[in-house]
Amino acid sequence: MEKIVSLCRRRGFLFQSSEIYGGLNGFWDYGPLGVELKRNVKEAWWRDMVSQHDDMSVIPGAPSTYEMTGLDCTIIMHPQVWKCSGHFDLFCDMMQTCRQCKKLVRADHVQDMLNNADWTNSFAAECFVTRPDGGATFDSGAALRWAKHRKFGRRLSPGLALVRNPEVTMSWLAEDVENGTAGELTLSLVLSYMATEQKNQTGLQMPCPHCGGDLTEPREFNLMFESYAGAIKSEDNRVFLRPETAQGIFVNFKNVVDSTRVRIPFGIAQVGKSFRNEITPRNFTFRSREFEQMEIEFFCHPDTSKEWYQYWRDRRFRWYIEHGLAEGRLQLRDHDPDELSHYSTGTADIEYAFPFLADGEFGELEGIAHRGDFDLRSHMEGKLDPKSCPLEVELGEDGKPKYKGSGRDLTYRDDLTNERFTPHVIEPSAGADRATLAFMCEAYTEDEQPDEKGKMQTRTVMKFHPRLAPVKAAVFPLVKKDGMPEVAKDLYKALKAKFPVFYDEKGAVGRRYRRQDEAGTPYCITVDGDTLTDNTVTLRDRDSLEQIRIKLDDVVDEIESRIG
Q1: 50 — phi, psi (to 5°)?
Q2: pLDDT tens column, 31-85
Q3: Looking at residue 108, what is its pLDDT?
Q4: Which residues lie below 8 Å from residue 355, measured CB to CB, with a gap of 6+?
Q5: Does residue 419 register a pLDDT over 90?
Q6: How far apart are CA 531 and CA 523, in angstroms?
Q7: Using an 8 Å Cβ cutoff, are 223 and 278 in contact?
Q8: Which of 22, 93, 104, 331 has the fewest CB atoms within 10 Å around its CB?
Q9: Could you report the per-residue pLDDT of 502-558, keeping only the tens digit for each?
């Protein structure tokens, strides 16, 4: 993963936001190559799902024909949207604060972070002695030496109680061991003792993954970014940056139906920015505070919703394979009942084996959720109570809806059968940034190829699918004389009218090939001496390294047909 991150910085795929000021954690800027790659991912999704969708034929696996249309909603909407959707109350993580370094951590991430923290690994290596039977014994003397050593405890975990007050901290453990109340001294249990300075008052503490300090009790933390709309900063003017794009589609459902005359089943697609105040953004662009979503809300009759859920679940999985992700590094995982959102009767995640994860682990690329009629009913009637079954409007202490809905009729009347019903919704929700990251990880390849002198060298190549590649072709004159640059520039202009193309006449042609391989350019065209006599050029394929001669006049059509 380090090589991929380095290449992204070096070649202009991704930069950390505000880098010259030290950067801003959880925010990323796309560079010249990155912006083209991400744009291609979004455009491929939009073309395949919306603009090139055939609404007159039954797509394999679909229960029937269907229509698709698009929408572009505002980032800031009426705050009542988020109250009725459940985000205002439920869009929270349980958070803990370190009393020493004051950093926030998600309660459900603490254990994993401790398992990977430098200080816990150092502590375990120095303070646990392996026994002949394969177990480990805790060495209290080694723990004291580790805590006092300036290169270990004092540097790695300055907030740890053992480092701040070693004798008192160790006395609690010694007392409990002597009384037989400490139990088996596992690493997890010992770390809790090491983070506890006043056990009788606080009980055993969970250590901070960052500095070893003791953590507060978990508490709710709302993930929505707040702002204010209007001249006065007051509670009445408080608004939120949207945490998802879906709600803009739901509140415009009736507008789309009335203005386009679409008939159910149909889908509304949207690509746009969302914002979540992630406490621990990590793993490059995988978990960011500002990100882009590619979402579809597909409206269908309740009787056919299960069939449509199965269709979208399978179709979206195939889309990633068709665009270059290896099937062996993808999985389609159905959520267990305890994972399902309060509105969902079924959800599946498309997951990818990102290289920053341990072997056998997968990270979410896209979720396909059967949302039922939760959203449309919520915006009609008011916030629904997730604890009720069937779902009912959540009431306040006064017996009235806790958050009042719009009161608008968001049901649908079938003009052929005259049936009126609240549509069910299937939601394929993909992350544009996560998809872009997955395609970069999949594309990164190293192989051995001979240089211009025949010596084997390591070649770094980004094997993007041609539809996604930031630059589709590069044009080279073999040398900067004899009329070759003039022919190459005319060809470059002809190709440039169709798609992104790069022109390069600097350095040996072999080095120019390598630069384009690293940028992911699928095809290179070289104008040489023969071009001036027979009007042909050399076309080189990035992946196979095959070189063929084609007519100069056929280059544009050839590249266009190969990209698809």
Answers
A1: -125, -70
A2: 999 999 999 999 999 999 999 999 999 999 999 999 999 999 999 999 999 999 9
A3: 85
A4: 1, 4, 441
A5: yes
A6: 18
A7: yes
A8: 22
A9: 999 999 999 999 999 999 999 999 999 999 999 999 999 999 999 999 999 999 999
Distance of CA 561 to the CA centre of its chain: 31
Q: State the pairing for strand pair 473-477/501-503.
A: parallel
Place of tokens 């702002």: 227
Task: Look up the pTM and report it.
Answer: 0.81
Is pLDDT of 256 > 80?
Answer: yes
**Tokens 């202490």, residue?**
397
Q: Are 283 and 356 in contact (CB under 8 A)?
A: yes
List, as one string, the DSSP characters of 257-292: HHHH---SSEEEEEEEEEE---SS-BTTTTB-SEEE
CB–CB of 94/219 below 8 Å?
yes
HEC per residue, 468-492: CCCCCEEEEECCCCCCHHHHHHHHH
Measure the CA–CA gap between 264 and 422, rounded to whole angstroms: 11
Going by C-alpha positions, the residue among 558, 73, 524 that lies closest to residue 270 is 73
Q: How many other CB atoms sit within 10 Å of the CB of residue 307? A: 16
Angle at the Cα of 288 from the Cα atoms of 331 and 316, rounded to 5 degrees: 30
Mean pLDDT over 11-23 rounds to: 93
**What is the spatial distance between Cα 47 and Cα 486, in angstroms, rounded to a whole number?**
36
CA–CA distances in Å: residue 175 to residues 137, 164, 170, 205, 207: 17, 19, 9, 17, 20
Angle at 125 between CA 122 and CA 126, to 5 degrees: 85
> What does the alpha-carbon distance between residue 504 and residue 471 come to, in Å, rounded to a whole number?
13
Pairing of strands 92-97, 28-30: unpaired
Locate tokens 């690994």: which residue?
121
